[in-house]
Amino acid sequence: MAQASPSIALDAFDLAILNILQRDNSTPQRVIGEAVNLSAPAVQRRIRRMEEARVIQANVAVVDPAQVGQPITIFVEVEVISETAELIDAAKREFASVPEVQQCYYVTGEADFVMVIVVPTMTAYEALTRRLFFGNNNVKRFRTFVAMDRVKVGLAVPLSD
Amino acid sequence: MAQASPSIALDAFDLAILNILQRDNSTPQRVIGEAVNLSAPAVQRRIRRMEEARVIQANVAVVDPAQVGQPITIFVEVEVISETAELIDAAKREFASVPEVQQCYYVTGEADFVMVIVVPTMTAYEALTRRLFFGNNNVKRFRTFVAMDRVKVGLAVPLSD
DNA sequence: AATGAAATGAGAGCGCG
DNA sequence: CGCGCTCTCATTTCATT
Question: What is the pLDDT of residue A160?
């Protein structure tokens, strides 16, 4: 039941399977097998192995935010005052715990965190900034970028070029 | 197979189902039914309806970039020179077509585009910038943020708060 | 050691009340 | 919407290379 060993060797079959699953993980194993020239059980074993090794981290449905009443996507860059390990870890934990924060990365460069936030209204975003940024003594400043168009959205990784 | 009508009404059952599927879409319909107090066929009908309405846009496997040889995630802000509709559309199409560009948003604010890029090496990123930014006459400047930690990654939408 | 073919079992899909 | 059926697909077994 998917828990163990980090880092396994992946061959061209595995990468081809991943490429299909990243696009549509409801593809029948028989169809995948035809596409990569393997039997269904072989495909199944490889998938299981990659799930156990956490190469496949999750299997998820992608939901359209606009159709569930969350039409606003916002990018935020956050700069902190103090970068001690404890304060950074605290910030990571806080940001990660917020449901509206869809993605959060700790980065180098002119900001310390960048995140993607999904909210129903700008009012909700404003309330969130009060809580998350103005209410945090270690946040020096933040810059907001409101998405007008989600040009490309996904988590697909470029494979085997 | 899943093509049609935009905007359908969603009730609390639908949102509860989506909340499960966004975390794990391999959850058996019977289990989902138990969780939301509905029969498995009812769950199935609702899922199909949401797929047809494109509320559920895709079902995908989430792959760990590091384990497939793409350990570097980078945020980029891009500012363009001219914002005519044609040039913006051209930029959207170009950025969206690049496999390394995992996400791209057209935004308001101090930048015009923000994107998430996944690459195997900084050398590969440098080559990509040459092609995508230095090689594009309409790109005024871009700022790079290299991710040191993927604090939170996903596409889950906050539902029914 | 990993594969493919055949058998088993669980789950999705559909019509019924 | 829930119940029960059918049928596809996932999963296991086993012989094979």
Answer: 74
Nearest CA-CA distance, residue A128 and chain B, Å: 13
- Cβ of A57 within 8 Å of Cβ of B63? The answer is yes
- pLDDT at A7 (0 to 100): 85
Residues B36/B13, Cβ–Cβ less than 8 Å: yes
The H or E element spanning position B148 is strand B139-152
CATH number of the domain that A2 lies in? Answer: 1.10.10.10
Answer whether A155 sits within 8 Å of B155, measured CB to CB: yes
Compute the average pLDDT of residues A119-132: 98
Listed as ranges, the nucleotides of chain D within 7 A of a protein C-beta are 1-4, 8-13
Q: Mind listing the pLDDT tens digit for each residue in A51-102?
A: 999 999 999 999 999 999 999 999 999 999 999 999 999 999 999 999 999 9
Beta-carbon separation of A70 and B7 below 8 A: no
Q: What is the CATH number of the domain that holds A126?
A: 3.30.70.920
Containing structural domain, residue B129: 65-146
Determine contact, residues B122/B63, Cβ cutoff 8 Å.
Answer: no
Whole-angstrom CA distances from B34 to A86, B12, B23, B39 are 41, 15, 16, 7
**pTM exceeds 0.85 for this model:** yes
Average model confidence (pLDDT) across chain B: 95
**Tokens 């996400």 label which residue?**
B103
**Is A161 inside any structural domain?**
no
Which one of B61, B78, B103 terminates a domain? B61
